[in-house]
Design brief:
This protein is of the alpha/beta class. It has a single domain, classed as TIM Barrel (Alpha-Beta Barrel). The protein has 13 helices and eight strands. It has an eight-stranded parallel sheet. The radius of gyration is 19 Å and the shape is globular. The structure holds glyceraldehyde-3-phosphate. It is found in: Cytoplasmic granule; Nucleus. It is an enzyme of class 4 (lyase). One of its GO terms (molecular function) is deoxyribose-phosphate aldolase activity. It holds the Pfam family DeoC.
Length: 318
């Protein structure tokens, strides 16, 4: 991970002055989406890069120790060995960036990865994920328990009520407390952008989260009706850029929710490269939060290596 963002005193003047130009954001997002991602021969390498940035996620009511174990094994070997061998990448130790689970499943994931001698981090969602509508005391306790069980990354959700009512100092204070409860664990702050109403709120919530010491800002829980979209990402990465220019601290970015295709993964990489540069194109600074993306990436790599799709998957990437 990049050096921890220490945060700063809440700069309410900066936060209150922000106005986002919606038209400019939409135009820029359209440009990024329309980019030819990379020449065909480079696409497989880009897809492998995307794999190394995935927080491989299961966040279901029916999660059990066994499906969490399978998730961990997939995280350890996300792409079939024979496919990697054909690309001369079999000895590169390609894994996903982390696994991401509910707090009650952290111990299962830690056990599975430890048994496999792996140091892949376990991320836990916390603070009343996904809605965040539980008392502060229990949200804080949830963070502490997940860390105690071995999570080294905590994905907190912000209190949308505070953001929607413009209580930025209150939001800052809560996130500060989560930061403290995380201890040495890295903190990713989920804005749940689909519930923030305006781009201006998204920008303000991004700034406040970074000022309060977040190591990453993350778009969504995957449970809102609108999750990771490119326009919202433009707003968030520009907030990251502005925060960096002001403080010298690089905060990471994690789009999450509804990211399912290899093509989308490539667009996210392009967006990061064009908006923040190569320094943000590493698992330390960029994560894709996804439960169902890996399958499509593997199919596209299969196509790259064999020239055809597996029998159960006929649709080519656009
Ligand atoms: O934090 C990650 C998201 O919950 C994953 O969302 P997804 O299941 O739509 O990929």
């Amino acid at each position: 991970m990049e050096e921890r963002n220490p945060g700063m005193d809440l700069d309410l003047e900066w936060v209150s002055k922000v106005r986002v130009n919606t038209q400019a954001v939409l135009k820029r997002a359209q440009q990024v989406q329309g980019r030819k991602v990379a020449k065909k021969q480079w696409q497989a390498a880009w897809l492998l890069k995307a794999v190394t940035c995935i927080d491989l996620t299961t966040l279901s009511g029916d999660d059990t120790p066994s499906n969490v174990h399978r998730l961990c094994m997939k995280a350890l070997q996300p792409i079939r060995h024979d496919l990697l061998k054909s690309m001369d990448m079999h000895d590169k130790g390609i894994t996903t960036a982390a696994v991401c689970v509910y707090p009650s499943r952290v111990a299962d994931a830690v056990r599975s990865l430890k048994a496999a001698n792996s140091s892949i981090p376990v991320a836990s969602v916390a603070t009343g994920f996904p809605a965040g509508q539980t008392p502060l005391k229990t949200r804080l306790e949830e963070v502490r328990l997940a860390v105690e069980d071995g999570a080294t990354e905590i994905d907190i959700v912000i209190n949308r009520t505070l953001a929607l009512t413009g209580q930025w100092a209150g939001l800052y204070d809560e996130i500060r407390q989560f930061r403290k409860a995380c201890g040495d664990a890295h903190m990713k702050t989920i804005l749940a952008v689909g519930e923030l109403g305006t781009f201006t709120n998204v920008y303000k919530a991004s700034l406040v989260s970074m000022m309060a010491g977040s190591d990453f800002i993350k778009t969504s829980t995957g449970k809102e009706s609108v999750n990771a979209t490119y326009p919202v990402a433009i707003v968030m990465v520009r907030a990251i850029r502005d925060y960096y220019l002001k403080t010298g601290h690089k905060v990471g970015f994690k789009p999450a929710g509804g990211i399912r295709t290899a093509q989308e993964a490539l667009v996210w990489l392009v967006l990061m490269k064009e908006e923040l540069g190569d320094q943000w194109l590493t698992p330390h600074m960029f994560r894709l939060g996804a439960s169902s993306l890996l399958g499509d990436i593997e199919r596209q790599i299969y196509h790259y290596v064999t020239g055809r799709y597996p029998a159960h998957y006929e649709l080519p990437m656009a």
